[in-house]
Amino acid sequence: MAKGTNVQADLMKQKGILKWIETVGNKLPHPFVLFIILCGVLMVVSAILAAMDFSVIHPAKGEEVAVKSLLSVEGIHWILTSMLKNFIEFPALGLVLAMTLGIGLAEKIGLLTTVLRKMMAGIPASVVSYVVVFVGILGNLASDAAMVIIPPLGGLVFLAMGRHPIAGFAAGMAGVSSGFTANFFIAGTDALLAGISTEVAKTIDPNAMVTPVDNWFFMSASVVILAFFGGWITDKMIEPRLGTYHGDRNVQFEEVTPQENKALRKAGIAALIFVVIVGVLVVPEGSLLRDPKTGDFLTSPFLKGIIPIILLFFVTVSFVYGRAMGLIKTSKDIPQYMSEAIKDMSGFIVLAFTAAQFIAFFNWSNIGILMAVNGAEFMTHMGLTGLPIIIAFTLFTGVCSLFITSGSALWAILAPVFMPMLMLLDYNPAFIQAAYRIADSATNTISPVNPYIPLILAFYQKYNKNAGMGTIFSTMTPFAIVFLVVWILQLTLWYYLDLPFGPGVYAR
Fold this sequence. Notes:
Elements: H1 3-13, H2 17-26, H3 31-51, E1 55-57, E2 64-66, H4 73-88, H5 91-108, H6 111-120, H7 128-139, H8 144-160, H9 165-178, H10 188-201, H11 216-242, H12 258-282, H13 301-304, H14 306-325, H15 333-343, H16 346-365, H17 367-380, H18 386-400, H19 407-423, H20 429-442, H21 453-463, H22 469-497
């Protein structure tokens, strides 16, 4: 990178709201300690709110939900008896460690590096950011597994091209997380949200029905739109702030050797055979990995077991490649490589312990539900009409999703409040659902209760030992804001041009 560009990057890093976010955020204690402090604050707040008898009626269940004090006898007993359970059942823990066994094996034997070198030979440097974001968006079809696979690969791609690896990681994470609900394909999320929407919509119209394809056209267009803006943000905003990478980690961008090409071909054949076998077990009606009761694909054991399947895929192709390269000679070699990969995740495991407690404390105390329901009641009394109330609803959802990371759980809370109100204004329930989905996705990357924060920070610190929470939020904030704004503009365009959101589905 030219000297002038370095000077420009240094100047950019010294000013602006993003630099302020990074500076303030990184002055906070180490995230391990920070989550302990947050747990203490949450305990005090829950005790105060419980003493004031704060409660709400859960819109979906019709039951009273009261704030529970973490400092009560019940709360203290729960903390002591659930601490290990909170850690063991932490959503990201098992997934990340299981995927690390497979991906780590592929990385340690050099398969990932070789594949990336092969890929990069055919991808122009000018479009790589857009490709990483695009792949990230499509990759969310694999749900949480994509978070473990695509952002780190994005970092390696950038590193191989002499660019800053954190920028590549951020591009991949933006696609996977902030673009989570967009895709060319119908995913489990479409079916899950449609089920909730249909159930609530029937309270107004007994014949109402929201299907998994009702947002398909809108979300398919979103893939291309968000990939463009995500790539632009990476090139014009994120990487200039990061400057030139001067770390000791690198990926040699050398020509693939004949032996590596031969090993790749064998690994490719193994991958093809694996995919064909899985296809035979999934595609035909009544096949082994279909839903045994309904024969449906969206609720199939295949999608529910996607993590083990991906793990087996990586182990299979890595084993074939390693054997061809002479790197795997005995049965001891595979667990040895896997052990080395797990060692690299030690920081994540330590941080995950306190992060798991904070998220569990937050959920058990019911504070998140209290915030969402009271906020929704305030929204219903604002008196807005027309498109402005849809936009206000979207912005409110974006705030709520910062504290309730489960999209289906948040929709189960908000839908019973907003769906009837907006349907009475003659809005299609599928349109209301689309307005919810864009906000719930866009702010994923800056949620303080995101279960993948320990993983994200562990990756950042591979390339920047001084990285902290501020580094994460300052890097991802531009993606969250721009994605949300662009998505709202797209929603507005679809509304005024009366474009279909899905087959035969319009805003009104």
